[in-house]
């Protein structure tokens, strides 16, 4: 891949300054992919010192500067959380080789000055005001960065038709610390507010990069008692007694304390192995209520929607050491923070009889029946879960909002598998033809708000038409076919989690 550096004194695709007067000195020009990338542009002030656990302050509040920004290199990533993904997200060497996955040349540097975003634009845009795709990375609210969604391959595939943005937000205890002290003197769900702040920055500034600011596309919660417990654990792992002291800690001291909280919470039985510990919670402001209830009330943005359900998303959240039904009970007790004798756990296990999983699933390189039972239950519960997205899709369809759903079960059979096809380099994927087809659907949705209109090549004109969501029309993708089939999630299992949102918190 050929990469050069563009030395410029103005913003890409024009001399329009950003709203805070930021001038970009250099950008990365990827010759082979015909794209220009701007890395690590700040959208908010560094949330350090007294700005810890407060709402992000727009970068426009920074003192005026004449310093030019070098946007050729990645900057800090936000402080990463526990060992969730270190233990379970690893891909075996054979799969990694097939996917052309290699370790980064340099390990990313963690830091609090991480409220930044990356922008990729085409070298030769088709218009002066392109649709914008905004990627918000996953990672269980504990890990991840903008580098997880590089936009070069996707932008190149669109042939000059989109601008791609990938953002970062505070993670773990930095972004989702709760409790009464935060309510009194801070901002609950700071990480969610970071995401919103980044989107607002995009709307204010994306025109300077050739994007249309009016056309953005944006690719269980804990109880108050649990949130207060997390805050007290953070105090106990530091030398502090209150939030003011925590804000005065050095970066190294606070980073060490937050990492110790994960170990302490696990030891105290506040969450289970392979489970994220920190995450969004209902605060009445950033998040008004339990998502499934908000969808049921119609309290959501009525915009066209595509959702993807990965058949093996639950693998990353599942402890593969579980080998008995009692082990499943113990894990669910930790996940849901209820006693293992609770009738809800009995009901959940009955919804997932092990006999259900000894057929087609076990021609995959997977586990034993008890692990798959737990995997399936945890997938339904996890914060980025089947039930949550099912609620979105069904609510959208019921409201007459255009919506489409994809059920992805192609290799590799791991968490986030579809992203290798949708964002990564198609030629390096395990199935280049499938990767191009998935990109075609997504690009068409970005450009036309319909996945069936735009087709890059005559070959793509043969791909199946993706009908709007009904319980009988979900696009199923596996290694050998793309077909419309019935929705595997439209059943009493999802209803079970919806109806008991007091426990499931979804």
From TrEMBL:
Domain of life: Eukaryota
Alphabetized InterPro entries for the sequence: AB_hydrolase_fold (IPR029058), CarbesteraseB (IPR002018), Type-B_Carboxylest/Lipase (IPR050309)
Signal in keyword set: yes
Keywords: Hydrolase, Signal
The Carboxylesterase type B domain, residue ranges: 36-214, 235-488
Residues spanning the signal sequence: 1-21
Single GO MF annotation: hydrolase activity
Record-linked Pfam families: COesterase
Protein name: Alpha/beta-hydrolase
Species in which this protein is naturally found: Aaosphaeria arxii CBS 175.79
């Amino acid at each position: 891949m050929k990469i050069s550096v563009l030395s410029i004194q103005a913003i890409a695709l024009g001399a329009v300054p950003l709203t805070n007067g930021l001038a970009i000195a250099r950008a990365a020009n990827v010759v082979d992919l015909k794209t220009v990338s701007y890395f690590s542009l700040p959208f908010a002030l560094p949330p350090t010192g007294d700005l810890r656990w407060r709402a992000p302050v727009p970068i426009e509040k920074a003192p005026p500067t004449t310093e030019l920004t070098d946007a050729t290199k990645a900057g800090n990533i936000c402080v990463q959380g526990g060992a969730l993904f270190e233990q379970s997200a690893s891909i075996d060497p054979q799969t990694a080789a097939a996917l052309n996955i290699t370790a980064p040349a340099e390990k990313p540097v963690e830091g609090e000055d991480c409220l930044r975003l990356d922008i990729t634009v085409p070298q030769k845009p088709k218009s002066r005001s392109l649709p914008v795709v905004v990627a918000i990375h996953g990672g269980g609210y504990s890990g991840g960065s903008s580098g997880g969604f590089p936009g070069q391959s996707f932008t190149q595939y669109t042939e000059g038709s989109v601008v791609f943005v990938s953002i970062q937000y505070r993670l773990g205890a930095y972004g989702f610390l709760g409790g009464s002290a935060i309510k009194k003197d801070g901002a609950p769900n700071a990480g969610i507010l970071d995401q919103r702040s980044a989107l607002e920055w995009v709307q204010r500034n994306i025109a300077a990069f050739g994007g249309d600011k009016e056309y953005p596309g944006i690719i269980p919660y804990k109880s108050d008692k649990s949130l207060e417990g997390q805050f007290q654990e953070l105090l106990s792992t530091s030398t502090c007694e209150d939030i003011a002291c925590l804000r005065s800690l050095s970066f190294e001291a606070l980073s060490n304390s937050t990492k110790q909280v994960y170990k302490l919470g696990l030891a105290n039985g506040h969450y289970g192995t392979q489970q994220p510990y920190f995450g969004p919670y209902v605060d009445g402001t950033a998040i008004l209520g339990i998502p499934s209830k908000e969808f049921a009330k119609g309290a959501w943005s009525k915009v066209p929607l595509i959702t993807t359900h990965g058949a093996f998303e639950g693998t990353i959240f599942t402890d593969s050491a579980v080998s008995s039904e009692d082990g499943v009970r113990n894990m669910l007790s930790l996940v849901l923070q209820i006693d293992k004798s609770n009738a809800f756990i009995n009901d959940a296990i009955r919804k997932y009889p092990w006999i259900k999983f000894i057929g087609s699933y076990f021609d995959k390189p997977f586990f034993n029946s008890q692990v798959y039972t737990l995997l399936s239950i945890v997938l339904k519960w996890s914060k980025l879960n089947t039930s949550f997205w099912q609620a979105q899709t069904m609510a959208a369809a019921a409201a007459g909002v255009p919506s489409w759903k994809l059920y992805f079960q192609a290799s590799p059979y791991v968490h986030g598998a579809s992203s290798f096809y949708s964002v990564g380099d198609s030629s390096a994927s395990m199935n280049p033809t499938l990767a191009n087809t998935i990109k075609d659907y997504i690009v068409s949705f970005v450009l036309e708000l319909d996945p069936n209109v735009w087709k890059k090549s005559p070959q793509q004109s043969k791909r199946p038409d993706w009908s709007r969501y009904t319980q009988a029309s979900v696009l199923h993708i596996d290694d050998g076919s793309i077909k419309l089939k019935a929705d595997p999630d439209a059943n009493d299992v999802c209803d079970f989690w919806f109806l008991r949102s007091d426990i499931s918190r979804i």
